[in-house]
């Protein structure tokens, strides 16, 4: 079985949606919505209301080296936008202690 959930996306926009019960994860590009839903429910022990996905096209990168310009491309990514049922949350940041 493929490793479905790679990492959570922790950006300002994603954290703002977290207050509404929506979370964003980077997932394996080969996974589908059913697999993503099962993986989130199993990993975080929550009930998933809906799953939306987006495929992010890789960027073209170039840099100047001694041998000239090197060009390449970053890999394609897939994001999953998870909406949980009312009253449920996921602690993505995981900071339980107080900062002093």
Description:
The N and C termini lie far apart (43 Å). With 100 residues, this protein is of the alpha+beta class. The mean pLDDT is 89. It is built from two helices and six strands; from the N terminus they run βαβαββββ. It is elongated, with a radius of gyration of 17 Å.
Present the secondary structure layout.
Blueprint lengths: L4 E4 L3 H7 L3 E6 L5 H12 L3 E9 L3 E6 L2 E6 L3 E8 L16
Antiparallel strand pairs: 1-2, 2-6, 3-6, 4-5
According to CATH, the fold-level topology is Alpha-Beta Plaits
Largest sheet: 4 strands, antiparallel
Number of discrete domains:
1
Count of DSSP H/I helices? 2
Spatial separation of the terminal alpha carbons: 43 Å
Shape: elongated
Mean pLDDT: 89
Sheet with the most strands: spatial strand order: 1-2-6-3
| Helix and strand run | EHEHEEEE
What proportion of the residues form beta strands (DSSP E)? 35-45%
CATH secondary-structure class: Alpha Beta
* CATH homologous superfamily heading: RRM (RNA recognition motif) domain
| CATH structural architecture | 2-Layer Sandwich
Rg result: 17 Å
Keyphrases for this structure?
single chain; 100 residues; alpha+beta; Alpha-Beta Plaits; four-stranded antiparallel beta sheet; two-stranded antiparallel ribbon; 2 helices; 39% strand; elongated
